[in-house]
């Protein structure tokens, strides 16, 4: 069972806001200090503990941090004032980058607290605990998140790092506390917008997009007989009409009724057509060969007599 399924079980489907999830990734790039010990005969031996929490008041702590905290790193950086950690995947046993899953961002800002301890043979010495408040964009998802370079410095201790924060898949808002996963089942028929709000698919309505839209009651069919179905509808069109809503008159010219090279013209609002025939063809569909004798035409023009034609069918003329 994945975490989303667990959340569904805990909070149910009807609750629009659930305990969402996001991530804070911190990639430590370098550390430096100016610490010498044993009468300045050698440099200090730093070990680290990291903490991510909501901003802390008073004395900084690296345990009980409400996002996450690490154990103390191992004593692997002996006698040094500078560590380049950019390409280290382990900082004395601590993963780098450090990726922390959060159950919703509680406040807009997050505090990174780092404690540095000098390893010694007998008692380790506290060197520095310092913090940086991070007011970062919480990106909608990991793929579109952007690392930001940051620096924290106090009493000659400096850490350079980069950080990014983002919501996990299907979680929305800057707190990553709103869950929306597109569905097309009896639980709902919807997609999600950029704010994590449900957008019902066509034919569905209601807050969970589980209710069928009665398109017949809404008069979707322009003419014909309407039949409502779950998530859809159909229109049984009268003769000569077509389209999802029977709103289109069929084009009678589509069936190419004009023969022998005739051109078809459809009526704008009725299912009728006329054919403009090529010379020597006539009839409703230009189906008849009409031979016009020259002398008859001459009489016609001069005498205004009703034209006489000799009609015959090709090739009998
Ligand atoms: Ca030392
Ligand atoms: Ca030491
Ligand atoms: Ca319907």
UniProtKB/TrEMBL annotation:
Disulfide bonds join 167-176, 180-192, 200-209, 216-226, 237-246, 258-275, 277-286. This is Delta-like protein. The keyword tRNA-binding does not apply. InterPro entries: DSL, EGF, EGF-like_Ca-bd_dom, EGF-type_Asp/Asn_hydroxyl_site, EGF_Ca-bd_CS, Growth_fac_rcpt_cys_sf. Residues 165-209 form the DSL domain. It is a single-pass type I membrane protein. Coiled coil: none annotated. Putative Notch ligand involved in the mediation of Notch signaling. It holds the Pfam family EGF. GO terms for cellular component: membrane. Residues 212-247, 249-287 form the EGF-like domain. Keywords: Developmental protein, Disulfide bond, EGF-like domain, Membrane, Repeat, Signal, Transmembrane, Transmembrane helix. It comes from Candidula unifasciata. It is found in: Membrane. GO terms for biological process: Notch signaling pathway.
């Amino acid at each position: 069972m994945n975490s989303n399924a667990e959340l569904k079980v805990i909070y149910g489907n009807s609750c629009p806001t659930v305990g969402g999830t996001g991530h804070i990734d911190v990639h430590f790039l370098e550390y430096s200090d100016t610490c010498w010990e044993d009468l300045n005969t050698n440099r200090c031996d730093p070990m680290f503990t990291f903490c991510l929490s909501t901003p802390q008041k008073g004395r900084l702590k690296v345990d009980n941090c409400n996002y996450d905290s690490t154990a103390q790193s191992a004593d692997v950086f002996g006698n040094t004032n500078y560590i380049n950690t950019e390409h280290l995947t382990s900082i004395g046993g601590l993963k780098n980058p450090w990726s922390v899953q959060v159950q919703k961002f509680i406040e807009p800002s997050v505090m990174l607290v780092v404690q540095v301890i000098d390893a010694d043979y007998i008692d380790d010495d506290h060197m520095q605990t310092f913090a940086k408040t991070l007011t970062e964009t919480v990106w909608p998802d990991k793929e579109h998140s952007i690392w930001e370079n940051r620096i924290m410095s106090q009493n000659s201790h400096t850490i350079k790092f980069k950080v990014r924060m983002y919501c996990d898949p299907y979680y929305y808002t800057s707190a990553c506390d709103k869950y929306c996963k597109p569905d097309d089942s009896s639980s709902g028929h919807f997609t999600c917008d950029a704010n994590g709000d449900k957008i019902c698919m066509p034919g569905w309505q209601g807050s969970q997009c589980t209710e069928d839209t009665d398109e017949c009651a809404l008069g979707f069919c322009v003419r014909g007989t309407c039949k409502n179905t779950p998530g859809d509808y159909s229109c049984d069109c009268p003769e000569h009409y077509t389209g999802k809503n029977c709103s289109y008159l069929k084009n009678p010219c589509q069936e190419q009724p004009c023969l022998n090279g005739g051109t078809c013209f459809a009526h704008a609002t009725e299912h009728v057509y006329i054919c403009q025939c090529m010379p020597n063809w006539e009839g409703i569909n230009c189906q008849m060969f009409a031979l016009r004798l020259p002398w008859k035409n001459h009489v016609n023009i001069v005498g205004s007599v009703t034209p006489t034609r000799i009609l015959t069918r090709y090739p009998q003329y």
